[in-house]
Amino acid sequence: MTRDEVEANPELIGLLVMRNQLKKETIPAIRILHEAHIRTVMVTGDNLQTAVTVAKDCDMIDRVQRVIQVEATIVPASIHGAQHLQVLYNDPLATPEFIAGTVRCLINKCMAPNSAEI
């Protein structure tokens, strides 16, 4: 069956709406961390736009703040070289030093052996 055949005469059979709602403790907790000058980092497998919206809703980031998406992947060892970390980011204004610092933070703080839950 071709795409044109599948998309011909569509009939709406339902609508699903999902809502991400913050817990009431979230905003005060983020505020306390900021006042204590503790850097907050979000690690999520969620959709980027959802994550940014949640971060803005709980004042983790300002509504006008620029967001840089960083994706780090461990590349296994192969005939082409040793195991290494591949880092991709989406902001042409982000310097390699900034990205390296962000990745170090993720590795050292978020991926530590004793940090099963963040």
UniProtKB/TrEMBL annotation:
The entry's keywords: ATP-binding, Magnesium, Metal-binding, Nucleotide-binding, Phosphoprotein, Translocase
Superkingdom to which the source organism belongs: Eukaryota
Membrane topology summary: Multi-pass membrane protein
Where is this chain's protein located in or outside the cell? Membrane
- Whether Nucleus counts among this entry's keywords is no
User: Where is it found, in Gene Ontology cellular component terms?
Assistant: membrane
Q: Name one GO biological process term.
A: intracellular calcium ion homeostasis
Is the keyword Transmembrane helix in the record? no
- InterPro entries the UniProt entry points to: HAD-like_sf, HAD_sf, P-type_TPase_V
Pfam families in UniProt: Hydrolase
> Which terms in the Gene Ontology molecular function aspect does this entry carry?
ATP binding; ATPase-coupled monoatomic cation transmembrane transporter activity; metal ion binding; P-type transmembrane transporter activity; polyamine transmembrane transporter activity
Q: What is this protein called?
A: Cation-transporting ATPase
Origin species, per record, is Daphnia magna
